[in-house]
Write a structure and sequence with these properties.
Layout lengths: L1 H18 L10 E2 L2 H10 L5 E3 H4 L4 E2 L21 E3 H15 L3 E7 L4 H10 L20 E8 L28 H16 L2 E4 L2 E7 L7 E2 L3 H9 L1
This protein binds zinc ion (ZN).
Protein backbone atom coordinates (compact mmCIF):
# COMPACT_ATOMS: atom_id res chain seq x y z
CA UNK A 1 0.00 0.00 0.00
CA UNK A 2 2.83 2.31 0.96
CA UNK A 3 4.60 1.50 -2.29
CA UNK A 4 1.46 2.25 -4.29
CA UNK A 5 1.14 5.57 -2.49
CA UNK A 6 4.74 6.49 -3.38
CA UNK A 7 4.13 5.47 -7.02
CA UNK A 8 1.00 7.63 -7.24
CA UNK A 9 2.81 10.53 -5.58
CA UNK A 10 5.81 10.28 -7.95
CA UNK A 11 3.53 10.11 -11.00
CA UNK A 12 1.56 13.15 -9.81
CA UNK A 13 4.77 15.10 -9.29
CA UNK A 14 5.99 14.13 -12.79
CA UNK A 15 2.69 15.24 -14.38
CA UNK A 16 2.76 18.48 -12.39
CA UNK A 17 6.32 19.15 -13.61
CA UNK A 18 5.32 18.57 -17.23
CA UNK A 19 2.40 20.96 -16.89
CA UNK A 20 4.77 23.61 -15.58
CA UNK A 21 6.54 23.90 -18.96
CA UNK A 22 4.86 27.16 -19.91
CA UNK A 23 6.91 27.39 -23.12
CA UNK A 24 5.45 24.11 -24.35
CA UNK A 25 2.26 23.37 -22.38
CA UNK A 26 0.94 20.85 -24.94
CA UNK A 27 4.16 18.81 -24.99
CA UNK A 28 4.70 19.16 -28.73
CA UNK A 29 8.02 18.10 -30.30
CA UNK A 30 9.40 21.65 -30.42
CA UNK A 31 13.06 22.57 -30.91
CA UNK A 32 13.59 25.41 -28.43
CA UNK A 33 17.37 25.44 -28.06
CA UNK A 34 20.01 26.31 -30.67
CA UNK A 35 21.56 22.93 -29.98
CA UNK A 36 18.36 21.11 -30.96
CA UNK A 37 17.90 23.36 -34.00
CA UNK A 38 21.45 22.80 -35.27
CA UNK A 39 21.10 19.04 -34.82
CA UNK A 40 17.97 19.12 -37.01
CA UNK A 41 19.78 21.15 -39.67
CA UNK A 42 22.76 18.77 -39.62
CA UNK A 43 20.39 15.84 -40.15
CA UNK A 44 18.33 17.56 -42.85
CA UNK A 45 19.82 20.75 -44.37
CA UNK A 46 16.40 21.62 -45.87
CA UNK A 47 15.22 22.51 -42.37
CA UNK A 48 17.67 25.41 -42.09
CA UNK A 49 15.83 28.70 -41.52
CA UNK A 50 17.15 31.07 -44.17
CA UNK A 51 17.02 34.88 -43.90
CA UNK A 52 14.75 35.91 -46.80
CA UNK A 53 16.66 39.14 -47.36
CA UNK A 54 19.73 37.03 -48.13
CA UNK A 55 18.04 35.06 -50.93
CA UNK A 56 15.65 37.71 -52.29
CA UNK A 57 17.56 40.95 -52.99
CA UNK A 58 15.62 44.17 -52.27
CA UNK A 59 12.77 42.24 -50.69
CA UNK A 60 10.00 44.47 -49.34
CA UNK A 61 9.27 43.57 -45.72
CA UNK A 62 6.61 44.92 -43.45
CA UNK A 63 6.87 42.63 -40.45
CA UNK A 64 3.63 43.58 -38.75
CA UNK A 65 4.39 41.66 -35.54
CA UNK A 66 7.56 43.70 -35.03
CA UNK A 67 5.34 46.81 -34.77
CA UNK A 68 2.27 47.80 -32.76
CA UNK A 69 0.30 47.59 -35.98
CA UNK A 70 -1.00 44.04 -35.49
CA UNK A 71 -4.07 42.46 -33.91
CA UNK A 72 -2.41 42.15 -30.48
CA UNK A 73 -1.64 45.90 -30.39
CA UNK A 74 1.92 45.32 -29.13
CA UNK A 75 5.19 44.39 -30.85
CA UNK A 76 5.71 40.61 -30.62
CA UNK A 77 9.08 40.35 -32.38
CA UNK A 78 12.05 42.43 -31.33
CA UNK A 79 13.36 42.75 -34.90
CA UNK A 80 11.69 42.93 -38.33
CA UNK A 81 13.12 39.73 -39.80
CA UNK A 82 11.73 37.02 -42.08
CA UNK A 83 13.08 33.45 -42.15
CA UNK A 84 11.81 30.35 -43.99
CA UNK A 85 13.11 26.80 -44.40
CA UNK A 86 15.53 26.65 -47.32
CA UNK A 87 13.30 25.10 -50.05
CA UNK A 88 10.45 27.47 -49.11
CA UNK A 89 12.75 30.49 -49.31
CA UNK A 90 14.04 29.34 -52.70
CA UNK A 91 10.48 28.85 -54.01
CA UNK A 92 9.61 32.37 -52.84
CA UNK A 93 12.67 33.70 -54.69
CA UNK A 94 11.23 32.07 -57.84
CA UNK A 95 7.90 33.79 -57.17
CA UNK A 96 9.70 37.13 -56.97
CA UNK A 97 11.60 36.44 -60.22
CA UNK A 98 8.49 35.58 -62.13
CA UNK A 99 6.66 38.70 -60.89
CA UNK A 100 9.50 40.95 -62.06
CA UNK A 101 8.44 40.52 -65.69
CA UNK A 102 5.09 42.09 -64.78
CA UNK A 103 6.68 45.00 -62.91
CA UNK A 104 5.46 43.51 -59.63
CA UNK A 105 7.06 42.19 -56.45
CA UNK A 106 6.08 40.58 -53.16
CA UNK A 107 5.83 42.26 -49.77
CA UNK A 108 6.16 39.94 -46.78
CA UNK A 109 4.18 40.49 -43.57
CA UNK A 110 5.29 37.37 -41.69
CA UNK A 111 7.19 34.13 -42.30
CA UNK A 112 8.74 31.80 -39.66
CA UNK A 113 7.13 32.53 -36.30
CA UNK A 114 8.57 31.20 -33.01
CA UNK A 115 6.07 28.96 -31.16
CA UNK A 116 5.99 31.39 -28.20
CA UNK A 117 4.18 33.88 -30.46
CA UNK A 118 1.58 31.26 -31.43
CA UNK A 119 0.88 30.61 -27.75
CA UNK A 120 0.45 34.33 -27.12
CA UNK A 121 -1.74 34.93 -30.21
CA UNK A 122 -4.18 32.25 -29.05
CA UNK A 123 -4.33 33.83 -25.61
CA UNK A 124 -5.25 37.19 -27.18
CA UNK A 125 -7.63 35.78 -29.83
CA UNK A 126 -8.75 32.18 -29.17
CA UNK A 127 -10.36 31.58 -32.57
CA UNK A 128 -8.76 28.78 -34.59
CA UNK A 129 -10.03 30.04 -37.94
CA UNK A 130 -7.65 32.99 -37.78
CA UNK A 131 -5.13 31.99 -35.10
CA UNK A 132 -3.34 28.63 -35.06
CA UNK A 133 -4.37 26.12 -32.41
CA UNK A 134 -1.37 25.93 -30.02
CA UNK A 135 -2.16 22.23 -29.41
CA UNK A 136 -0.92 21.60 -32.97
CA UNK A 137 1.23 24.62 -33.67
CA UNK A 138 1.22 26.72 -36.84
CA UNK A 139 2.86 26.04 -40.20
CA UNK A 140 4.55 29.40 -39.51
CA UNK A 141 6.27 27.68 -36.52
CA UNK A 142 7.70 25.19 -39.06
CA UNK A 143 9.10 27.92 -41.35
CA UNK A 144 6.77 26.66 -44.08
CA UNK A 145 4.16 29.45 -44.31
CA UNK A 146 4.32 33.04 -45.46
CA UNK A 147 1.92 35.99 -45.24
CA UNK A 148 2.31 38.36 -48.15
CA UNK A 149 0.83 40.66 -50.75
CA UNK A 150 1.77 42.10 -54.13
CA UNK A 151 3.30 45.53 -54.76
CA UNK A 152 4.25 47.64 -57.74
CA UNK A 153 8.00 46.93 -58.00
CA UNK A 154 8.81 50.52 -58.85
CA UNK A 155 6.64 52.52 -56.45
CA UNK A 156 6.33 49.93 -53.68
CA UNK A 157 2.59 50.59 -53.59
CA UNK A 158 0.45 47.64 -52.56
CA UNK A 159 -2.02 46.24 -55.08
CA UNK A 160 -5.56 46.48 -53.75
CA UNK A 161 -6.58 43.26 -52.02
CA UNK A 162 -9.89 42.27 -50.37
CA UNK A 163 -8.83 43.41 -46.86
CA UNK A 164 -5.85 44.55 -44.86
CA UNK A 165 -3.42 41.89 -43.56
CA UNK A 166 -4.85 40.04 -40.51
CA UNK A 167 -8.36 41.32 -41.03
CA UNK A 168 -10.22 38.53 -39.25
CA UNK A 169 -13.37 38.73 -41.37
CA UNK A 170 -15.39 36.82 -43.99
CA UNK A 171 -14.10 39.26 -46.62
CA UNK A 172 -10.59 37.82 -46.15
CA UNK A 173 -11.73 34.40 -47.43
CA UNK A 174 -10.93 33.13 -50.92
CA UNK A 175 -14.63 32.21 -51.21
CA UNK A 176 -15.69 35.87 -50.78
CA UNK A 177 -16.60 37.09 -54.26
CA UNK A 178 -18.54 40.31 -53.66
CA UNK A 179 -15.53 42.50 -54.55
CA UNK A 180 -14.56 44.84 -57.39
CA UNK A 181 -13.23 43.04 -60.47
CA UNK A 182 -9.67 44.38 -60.12
CA UNK A 183 -9.47 43.18 -56.49
CA UNK A 184 -10.59 39.69 -57.51
CA UNK A 185 -7.94 39.79 -60.24
CA UNK A 186 -5.19 40.84 -57.81
CA UNK A 187 -6.11 38.05 -55.37
CA UNK A 188 -6.15 35.54 -58.26
CA UNK A 189 -2.81 36.82 -59.57
CA UNK A 190 -1.12 36.24 -56.21
CA UNK A 191 -2.72 32.81 -55.94
CA UNK A 192 -1.67 31.84 -59.48
CA UNK A 193 1.99 32.72 -59.02
CA UNK A 194 2.19 31.15 -55.54
CA UNK A 195 0.59 27.90 -56.75
CA UNK A 196 2.98 27.76 -59.70
CA UNK A 197 5.92 27.55 -57.27
CA UNK A 198 4.56 24.99 -54.83
CA UNK A 199 2.49 27.01 -52.36
CA UNK A 200 -1.17 26.49 -51.58
CA UNK A 201 -3.83 28.71 -50.11
CA UNK A 202 -5.43 28.79 -46.69
CA UNK A 203 -9.06 29.42 -47.57
CA UNK A 204 -9.89 31.85 -44.73
CA UNK A 205 -6.97 34.27 -45.36
CA UNK A 206 -6.04 35.61 -48.81
CA UNK A 207 -2.53 36.61 -47.54
CA UNK A 208 -1.49 33.22 -46.07
CA UNK A 209 0.28 30.52 -48.12
CA UNK A 210 1.64 27.16 -47.03
CA UNK A 211 4.45 25.38 -48.82
CA UNK A 212 3.64 21.89 -50.10
CA UNK A 213 6.13 20.00 -47.90
CA UNK A 214 5.69 22.33 -44.94
CA UNK A 215 4.31 19.72 -42.53
CA UNK A 216 7.55 17.74 -42.78
CA UNK A 217 9.50 20.66 -41.27
CA UNK A 218 9.91 20.67 -37.48
CA UNK A 219 8.18 23.02 -35.04
CA UNK A 220 10.58 25.60 -33.60
CA UNK A 221 10.72 28.13 -30.82
CA UNK A 222 14.01 29.85 -31.66
CA UNK A 223 14.21 33.65 -31.53
CA UNK A 224 15.15 35.79 -34.56
CA UNK A 225 18.14 37.06 -32.55
CA UNK A 226 19.51 33.56 -32.05
CA UNK A 227 19.00 32.73 -35.73
CA UNK A 228 20.69 35.96 -36.85
CA UNK A 229 23.58 35.37 -34.44
CA UNK A 230 24.08 31.85 -35.79
CA UNK A 231 24.10 33.09 -39.41
CA UNK A 232 26.63 35.83 -38.77
CA UNK A 233 29.09 33.35 -37.24
ZN1 LIG B 1 -0.16 33.27 -41.93
Amino acid sequence: MKRLFILVLTTSILIACQEKDTRNPHNLPIANTMEAYLAQVAENPDTELVDLEEVIPDLALYIAYATEDNFTGVPIYTSPKAFLCRPVAMALADVQDSLQKMGLAIKVFDAYRPYAATLYFYEVYPNTTFVADPRRGSIHNRGGAVDLTLINAETGEELEMPTRFDSFSDTASHTFMDLPEHVLENRALLRGVMETFGFYIYEAEWWHYNFTEARTFPLRDISFEDLAKEQSE
